[in-house]
Design brief:
The chain is mainly beta and about 130 residues long. The protein has no helices and eleven strands.
Length: about 130
């Protein structure tokens, strides 16, 4: 299984921006659907955004219009551009390979992580 390394976290004031990068070890990221997740203290890890091999993107409602996930094939990364940050965005951010699971019985779908978790990168937004 491919492991991923996250980078780009830091401390920023509310309203600021950060750009995170997800890089695989020893493989091409262009052949893998990728999800960015986050985990705040005392909370479960949650999906923030995902991108298919085709480039189709999906976002959690709480980041729509603020975050953008993109493939940067020349750098072999999947980046997460985070704008208009708020204190509630404070968390450790992780990326992972994902797959898309359709649930026709519920007329919806979910993204399932498909690999080991890395160390993550800390994002802290001050008010």
């Amino acid at each position: 299984q491919v492991k991923f390394v996250e980078s780009g976290g830091g401390v920023v004031q509310a309203g600021g921006s950060l750009r995170l990068s997800c890089e695989p070890s020893g493989s091409s990221i262009s052949e893998t659907p990728i999800g960015w997740y986050r985990q705040a203290p005392g909370k479960q890890r949650e999906l923030v955004a995902a991108i298919k091999i085709s480039g189709t993107t999906d976002y959690a409602d709480f980041v729509k219009g603020r975050f953008t996930i993109s493939r940067e094939n020349a750098k072999n990364t999947v980046d997460l551009q985070m704008n208009s940050l708020i204190p509630d965005d404070t968390a450790v951010y992780y990326c992972n390979a994902v797959y898309h699971l359709a649930r026709p019985e519920y007329a919806d779908y979910e993204w399932i992580e498909d690999g080991p978790w890395g160390q993550g990168t800390q994002v802290t937004v001050s008010s």
